[in-house]
Specification:
It contains two helices and 13 strands, in the order αββββββαβββββββ. The strands form two sheets. The chain has an eight-stranded antiparallel barrel. Strands 11-12 form a two-stranded antiparallel sheet. It is elongated.
Length: 194
């Protein structure tokens, strides 16, 4: 009986701690946030693009964000490279297959501080229903009180291998691949505290 009473009290205490420990929510300022990517074309030039439709949700209570939980959801069909023909090809099943796989998702596992305002962000990235662990470099550009909001700015950089996600359309020519396997990613996020 004493054991059962102890378990119930412990469970209630844990529930109370979780209920009290509500995290602060941060969401993207759409006008000042972007998700960009680039690939090398025929080994000699870089082609850039971005996603127009995405949501970012960050839960964090600490000023340095080391306790942050981050979730990014991208609508794959919002891809834009300033060329309709290329966009249609990238949205096709040769690449992202946006009709079958409409969402790209990233869920963080850790945000490790490695220097003054510098972090390594590790989490699960899902493209075409393939999920892999990826690590990106993140720079915290600062937090300010402005225009009635608390705002925090971040820049994320890194690269992924598209073949890891079955984005494996491949044509070659005499000097190599038409589209590089490595995709560089640059994201700028301005988050507003809610």
């Amino acid at each position: 009986m004493k054991t059962l009473t102890y378990i119930i009290i412990l469970a209630l205490n844990l529930f109370t701690i979780q209920a009290v420990a509500q995290s602060t929510t941060w969401v993207e300022d759409e006008a000042h946030s972007s998700i960009k990517f680039s690939a090398v074309h025929m080994g000699i030039s870089e082609v850039e693009g971005n996603f127009k439709d995405f949501d970012i949700k960050v839960m964090s209570d600490k000023a340095d964000f080391t306790d942050a939980s981050i979730e990014v959801t991208i609508q794959a069909n919002s891809l834009d490279t300033d060329n309709v023909k290329r966009d249609d090809h990238l949205k096709s099943d040769d690449f992202l297959g946006t009709e079958t796989y409409p969402v790209i998702k990233f869920i963080s596992e850790s945000l490790k501080k490695i220097g003054d305002g510098e972090y390594q962000l590790t989490g699960k990235l899902t493209i075409r229903d393939v999920t892999k662990t990826e690590t990106f470099d993140v720079k915290h550009l600062g937090t300010v009180e402005a225009m009635g909001e608390t705002r925090a700015g971040f820049k994320l950089t890194g690269s992924i291998q598209r073949f890891d996600y079955n984005v494996d359309w491949n044509k070659t020519f005499t000097k190599g691949m038409v589209v590089s396997k490595e995709i560089d990613i640059v994201c700028n996020f301005e988050l507003n505290k809610k």
